[in-house]
Specification:
Blueprint (H helix, E strand, L loop, with lengths): L4 H4 L13 H13 L5 E5 L10 H11 L2 E5 L13 H4 L10 E6 L9 E4 L3 H10 L1 H4 L8 H13 L2 H20 L8 E7 L1 H13 L5 E3 L9 E6 L6 H18 L10
Parallel strand pairs: 1-2, 2-3
Antiparallel strand pairs: 3-4, 5-7, 6-7
Bound molecules: pyridoxal-5'-phosphate.
């Protein structure tokens, strides 16, 4: 999305709101309407930098103020919903509303490659097939991925997925308990650090202790708000989660970074 922003800015005014601040969103939507613009709100179902989009509240507001939603459920696909339908679809009754454009990934929880977009009607599908970059110029799903996607789909249908989802929830629950976090479920946990150089040093130290964590910094997050990004998977063992939490806490102590991590809801 970051690299699409300047391209979109050629044709539209781009505004940001604070994380999940629906009051601010309402204000921006009203301003856009007053200026004769068509508001489109872009968000993730599960945020890649921590936290969850409040889908029911957002949908209610979009209905009330009549604006479009472009929702990216890359991180919710396979992870949320009894069929792995994701954070957005699992909270929508019936058909996809006309105002939603919904993207999903087959590369993360789904475990293969590729992704897609769900739209509510044929005209939009036609426009995307004609002008969407992947269809028009770049590579569509390669043939070798198709059988792998079908195999993953079979695991979604035969109950294997639900077992993996439960294991993942248990691992995240254990991590949260050890780290003192009280947050809604997400496979992504962020540990705030602040200074970029310190965050990189901390990740190196954690790697020395045997655990890989990502460091996120500007332009992914705000300058001076670097964080460690932890992606928990269903096949991590309890011992690995315990070892990771202990490693993070040791390194937090070593660098004087406060241990009570507030995380994003
Ligand atoms: C929110 C979000 N959407 C989409 C993507 C891209 O997904 P994919 O791995 O399918 O290319 C990412 C990648 O990390 C992401 O964080």
């Amino acid at each position: 999305m970051q690299y699409l922003k300047p391209i979109l800015a050629q044709e539209a005014r781009i505004e940001h709101i604070h994380h999940n601040d629906l009051n601010e969103l309402e204000q921006k939507v009203m301003e856009a309407r007053a200026a004769g613009e068509v508001p489109v709100y872009v968000a993730d179902g599960i945020y890649s930098m921590g936290g969850l989009c409040p889908i029911p509240e957002l949908l209610e507001m979009a209905e009330r103020l009549n604006f479009y939603l472009y929702l990216d459920d890359a991180h919710g696909t396979s992870i949320i919903g009894s069929r792995g339908e994701g954070a957005v679809l699992s909270q929508i009754d019936g058909y996809l509303p006309d105002r939603i454009f919904l993207t999903f990934s087959l590369t993360k929880g789904f475990g293969v490659a590729g992704g897609g977009i769900l739209v509510s009607n044929k005209t939009r599908e036609h426009l995307i097939r004609c002008f969407g970059q992947i269809y028009a110029f770049s590579a569509p799903l390669d043939f070798s991925s198709v059988p792998a996607c079908l195999a993953s789909l079979a695991l979604h249908r035969d109950g294997t997925l639900n077992g993996l989802q439960k294991a993942l929830q248990a691992r995240v629950g254990l991590f949260d308990q050890l780290m003192g976090l009280e947050l809604p479920f997400s496979p992504i946990r962020m540990i705030p650090v602040g200074n970029e150089a310190v965050a990189i040093e901390m990740a190196k130290r954690i790697l020395d202790l045997g655990y890989f964590v990502c460091v996120t910094f500007f332009p992914i997050v705000r300058r001076g708000h670097a964080q460690l990004r932890i992606c928990i998977a269903s096949n991590h063992t309890e011992d690995q989660i315990k070892g990771l939490a202990a490693a993070i806490q040791d390194v937090q102590r070593e660098y004087g970074v406060p241990q009570t991590t507030v995380g994003r809801a």
